[in-house]
Amino acid sequence: MLTLLLASVFLNGVNIDGLRSQKFDKCRTVRIDERGDVHLDCPGYQVEHPPAAVPASTSSPALAPLLPSAVAAAMTKRYWLVTEEKDGAAAQYDVDVFVNAKFVRKIRAGEPQVVLEITRYLHPGVNKVLFAATKRADGGRKSASPASFLKMVVGEGDSGGNTVTIDNPLIESKRTAAETENVNEEFTIQGR
Question: Where are the chain's structural domains?
Answer without folding.
Answer: 9-72, 78-191
